Amino acid sequence: MTDHALSVDIYMAEDFTATEGVRIGDTISFADDLVMDDIYRLHPHARSSDLSLLDNGESLRRAHGAHNLVHIDSCLTMIAPDGGTQEALVLVEVSDDIAKAIYILPLGEFVLGTDYRLIGIERHSATTRFAQAAGGSFAHGTLITMGSGEMRPIESLVAGDQILTRDSGRQPIKMVGQCTLRATGRFAPVVITKGALHNENDLVLRPDHRLLVYQREDYLGAGRAEVLIKARHLIDNTTVIRRKGGFVDYFQLVFDEHYIIFAEGIAAESHLIDQRSRSALAQNGALQNHTPRNHQGYEIQGNLVPKLDVANLLRRASTG
């Protein structure tokens, strides 16, 4: 099977310590070791980091080092003192059947220094929730370029509509997925404001959605002209920002293949279907895994993104 590279924002298990309950003093762990109603505090100085993975649809492995297996253990539900609930996935890195590290993938906004009571442990939904967390989508209102050159709101599109692709001209949509999520944590959309990448309107999309940028000069040191970069790596809090609060409607455009399409005039990927992401869509039985295309290997990983104004660099690099 072909590996698909992806990266997710995680905390280390050591960042969550039990302050009350049966396991007081212990760090958060996998489902078998957890006790309901224990209270865990997110360390005041905890910092999230990128975890780079290889996904073949059936298993996950670390992208670097020994390529250890990473298991999706469980989905936890935790409640804050104000009554708000958050979810997090527990990922366990394993080597020779021994747990080497435990990672916490937040599905919402966890506040540093805050206590959270564990109120739910769910194993069966964890894989689907991971597929939802690792995917990309466009927000309601995004204008998509049709095969005719017309631009239409994504929510008006239906299966069979012809979309302009960068790869293969006009292609019909296979299906349109949709979900509504709280705009918090990793699900809070990224807004690429008007003009940031020569776009005429704001482009609002999931943080992990990837954009394809052509560099006339290799400002990022990628060694190639074309690069795929996640929206969240462009955030500069000026021209590219995070919009938090309320709810957001996300839409996924699925084709027979993984294409580059145009959203608000910006080249961006369509929804990538593999064995894992297929399970997260309602009509998964009708979808086929996408074979690799050249652009899937163009992604700039988080640890390679320079600590500079990346949006500005790419805007300059793509200017004629």
TrEMBL record:
SUPFAM superfamilies the record matches: Hedgehog/intein (Hint) domain
Domain Hedgehog/Intein (Hint): 137-273
Protein name: Hint domain-containing protein
Origin species: Yoonia maritima
Pfam family name, one: Hint_2
InterPro entries: Hedgehog/Intein_dom, Hint_dom_sf
UniProt xrefs under Gene3D superfamilies: Hedgehog/Intein (Hint) domain
